[in-house]
Amino acid sequence: MPAHAWHRLFGAASDGGAHSRGGFGAYGRLATWRSVAALTGAPPGATVREVAALAEDCTWVSFGPDSEWFNGDGWDLGFAVLSPDGRRLAVLAATDAD
């Protein structure tokens, strides 16, 4: 998995946004791994090692849509993840805009 995606997801999960406190270290990591597992289509109960291996095999693209709700600040993020076989596309977009 690209390091950029991990850092952005972990930052959002652990630090929160402009209007929240986040989940801090351990809970932020848990939320990040859950997001990565969902984006990659990992099976329920997959280990961290299995999720990481699957994430490395996927194609990751970050994006920032041009819209009023997506301001492009530190708390806005968007990722599209294509499965290794090219048959599954998952998208996560989040903002902390008012």
Q: What profile does the largest beta sheet have?
A: 3 strands, antiparallel
Rg calc: 13 Å
Structural class: alpha+beta
Taking the alpha carbons of the first and last residues, their distance comes to: 30 Å
Strand order of the largest sheet: 1-2-3
What does this structure look like?
The structure is a single chain. The protein has 98 residues and is an alpha+beta fold. It has one domain (3-94). 41% of the residues lie in helices and 16% in strands. A three-stranded antiparallel β-sheet has the order 1-2-3, with helices on one face. The longest helix is centred in the N-terminal third of the chain and has 17 residues, at 24-40. The relative contact order is 0.19. The mean pLDDT is 84. Pfam families: DUF6183 (PF19681).
Characteristics of this structure?
98 residues; alpha+beta; three-stranded antiparallel β-sheet; 3 helices; 16% strand; globular
What is the structure about, briefly put?
With 98 residues, the protein is α+β, with helices and mostly antiparallel strands. It has three helices and three strands; from the N terminus they run αααβββ.
Strand and helix map with partners:
Layout lengths: L2 H13 L8 H17 L7 H10 L1 E4 L14 E6 L6 E6 L4
Antiparallel strand pairs: 1-2, 2-3
Pfam families: DUF6183
InterPro entries: DUF6183 (IPR045756)
